Amino acid sequence: MNHQINRRHLLAGAGALTVSILAPGEKARAYVATAGVASRPPLKPTRLASYISINADGGATAWFGKPDMGQGTDVGVAQMVAEELDLPSERVTVVFGDTAVTLNQGGASGSFGVQAGGKAMANAAAEARLILVEMASKKLGVPVEDLTVENGVVIAKSDATKRVSYGELIGGRWFDHEVEWNGQIGNFLDIKNMRAKRKDPKDYKVYGTSPPRRDVPEIVLGSSDYVVDVKLPGMLHGRTILPPVAGAVPTKVDKNSIKGIPGVQVVQEGAFLGVVAPREWDAIKAARQLKVTWSKVKEPFVEHKDIYKHIRNAPVIKTGGDKANTDKAAMDEAFKGAARIIEATYEFPFQSHACMGPGCAVVDYKPNGMSRLWTGSQKPHYAADGVAAVLGVAPEKMQGVWVRGPGSYGRGDAGDAANAAAILSKAVGKPVRYQAQRHEAHGWDPKGPASIHMMRAGIDKDGKVIAWEYKSKGFDQRNVESNESKPQDNLFSQLTGVKPKPSLYFGLPEESYKFPAKSLSFEVIAPMLESGSPLRSSHLRDPVGSNNHFAVESFVDEVAFGLGMDPIDFRLQYIGNERDRELVKILAEKSGWQKHTGPRKQRRGDIAIGQGVSFVIRGPTRVAMFIEVEVNTKTGKVWAKRVVVAHDCGVVINPELLKMTIEGNVCMGLSRALMEEVTFDKNNVTSVDWETYPILDMTQKPESVEVVLVNRQNIPPSGAGEGSMRPITAAVANAIYDATGVRVRQAPFTPDRVKTGMV
Amino acid sequence: MAKITLNVDGATHKIDADPDMPLLYALRDDLGLRNPRFGCGLAQCGACTVIVDGEAVRSCVTPVDSVQKSKITTLAGLGGGKAHKIQEAYIAEQVPQCGYCINGWIMTAAAFLEKNPKPTEAQMKEALTGLKCRCGTHMAIMRAMMRAVQA
Asked: Residues B101, B104, B105, B107: is their CA dihedral positive or negative?
């Protein structure tokens, strides 16, 4: 790492400690004013001005419809826009997170920030550059072909004295140009049939450089806005009360039990129960003290220890498979002709988003004016739609403002917080700041679904794999949708009586192995509790990717060893394309891979040492991972000591921020592989805090994470927010096997599970 | 409700509050400070950490009444008007992702390094156990710690 401290940033940040700053969310609107234009063209996808503008000083502003969740997506977008406009990246401002000034580009979602969102912005920037060059051509009387751009100045190649800057051409005024768009609101919103050509990769100047994050100084110096900091005049603090037995409804609420608390009010709507009070501590006390009698309901869940038995036995409500699947008859035929069949089943638990802060939002309901939402949701446009639906206001009378929240790793509890704040604000007619309590954040956030995965390989008499079958069975990938725009997908509206509409989908592994007969399929089972469930499933960083690839990449090793092959050699033999083979070879080289055809069980005293690999694809991104573990044979405790990641996500835009994003995935992924499992009894979730749902501690961090970026200059950039999450669980399992000879097929690999295997 | 006096970042504040109320809410809601953040209310994560008379303390479980005679320092006052060396190291290493937890890591490290200016890596890790980071910035945090110690 080689970042210089930017003194200017430090000073700016330190200054903000003492001077009053704009209320959270006001920054974006203040920026619109400083663009020097009273009336921007209407915010429509058909207007170039909706994506890009030129500032008075000749720099550019990108109006980006996705927030950054801390990985620096905005910096990447600034670089993409700068590259197309021939500007240095520091002259591109990125405004994001406010529904009033940016289009709905979906949100921080699916690792599409750069891949799809950035692409749209770069397309708009290329179109803007062409328009600027044409304007310059007219002004300078020089044909377009004779013009070039350097640092935002259009210059005649034949006569460098003929020049005009972007600022002189249109600075501080909006583009009044139409563009064609693809009609897709959300992640894939893009312009099409462009007149401009995107820059030739051989001319890239800004890609491959590492400008730093723009918000780090203010975060570290303590002057940054967070959603929990939003304060409005007359604002009340809200808390909720959730049932001890999931599915129970309040039958009697004794308001006398909190009557001493100043200004407290109880809000009840169906099974939704909340309190508000002018002081935050009073709202917390009221939520704790309120005496509630709950209805008697049937126990909603099976015991946690029986969850995989439940999944096995549960009726299938939906199936799905890969389009390229070999048909069933041919699959049966292939397995019938096999000399040998290898089979294994893998189990993956419910996991929690477990954000550092419980979900928080502020809603200001204005029946006759503009209602507002302040949210840390990764999809503020959709979250605002969801709040508008609860409030019963028209979308144009609703503004959503993203303010930094406690991270976001998929569909966490941020949307439910917005939902609760909306219900409370509407009920009491005042702005309400809602924050969940810790037991609600862990216990009641949407969960990554539990699943089982059956794998089967048919081997011919020569030791070749001729048939490959993957079949999963598990809870819905999205029992609640990830975009929060409909009340049905939010916990508290479900409690008021809105019926959920699950997606009935699971998802398939993505890998490039080629086998003569191959089938990938899934089966979805019903949730144990249909509505208002603390185990409702939804997206958790790389939705079902960890589940699926734990199974596939563990099984690849099992088959390789079953055939007496080295795991890397096996992958190289069956991977179907050169790009992927090259990545695996790079990993083998950089990690110092030593070939082996069975567990080596290397020991140093009580410590068993092993190495494992895995290889995955996620959309256009591919990741190969090496992990070395040390297993304490006395305790069963596993330490992932050394991690090597070979990462190919096309052309690399910002290597340093990409590496840090991958490191984050590695530490979070190790935490999930080794420690994380939502527990429950027949009544409710029982992992409700950091003691009952521990995550990776500083003493458990790897000694080293080496990231090898394979830069593919001619391949468009693809997502990196999640790709390196999916190979981790299997790489750890494979390393444990090498160390101990124990094949762990149930995640997470807690000391008990590993030790039990070793006995 | 009672009259409570607090000395925070070198200034004295008088508030009316329930003596049992955790210090966190006095700092955030009465004094308008934003860096100690609510994470768990159980002293399990550290997001609410402040330094009380030189010790890193979880303000979410510290009754406001108990620190009336103490000197309380928050992130905003840590460097006395300029960036503390740990903050400089965190910026140089680009540590935070979402940054919600960062207050706890910095305040805990500041109190620790004050007493142990030249710790080993193992001692630093030990001092930082009990803090949580969901974005998984552990590698960068340790790089920043090493940088701060060498500064």
From this structure: positive
